[in-house]
Amino acid sequence: MTALMFGATVLYAFGFAAFVFSALPAETAGPLIRRAFPHFYLFVFVTSVLAAATSAAADQTVALVLGAIAVTTLVARQMIMPAVNAATDRGASGRFKVLHSLSVAITLAHIVGAGFAIVLLAAKV
Q1: N or C: which end of the chain has fewer CB within 10 A?
Q2: Which sign does the torsion angle of CA 37, 42, 47, 49 carry?
Q3: pLDDT(86) > 90
Q4: CA distances in angstroms from 60 to 54, 55, 65, 108, 115, listed in the order given
């Protein structure tokens, strides 16, 4: 479950989003990404919760890292993403840049955290 979340997050962040913005005009790419992000965050949330629950008996540290990913995913989905969208809609480019950077930093932290969890779990095998 952790590897699935890790791979999907890397693919979405560095593959799908980059591809959409390079293949489509900005006026099409932006709304498409906006519609895709809630589903992406829901996927990360569900997989991180399941991974935390199933790893808790094997490694408490891994479970805590995966739980933190779940919590910060909810924050990103429910608070940051709507704020990014509102900033975009208002044309508030400075606020958009700050919030988008925060969103990117959270996603990168999720990738690092999931990678760390995978390494710790692999050491148990």
Answers
A1: C
A2: positive
A3: yes
A4: 11, 7, 9, 22, 16
Residues in the chain: 125
**Which residue from 68, 10, 11 is spatially nearest to 76, judged by alpha carbons?**
68
Tell how far CA 61 is from the center of its chain.
Answer: 20
* CA distance linking residue 109 with residue 107, whole number of Å: 5
Residue 9 has which token pair? 């997050």
What is the CA 16 to chain-centroid distance, rounded?
13
Structure tokens at 15: 């593959």
Query: How many of the other CB atoms lie within 10 Å of CB of 18?
Result: 11
pLDDT score of 125: 76
Kindly report the number of other CB atoms within 10 A of residue 67's CB atom: 17
No. of helices (H) and no. of strands (E), the chain: 6, 0
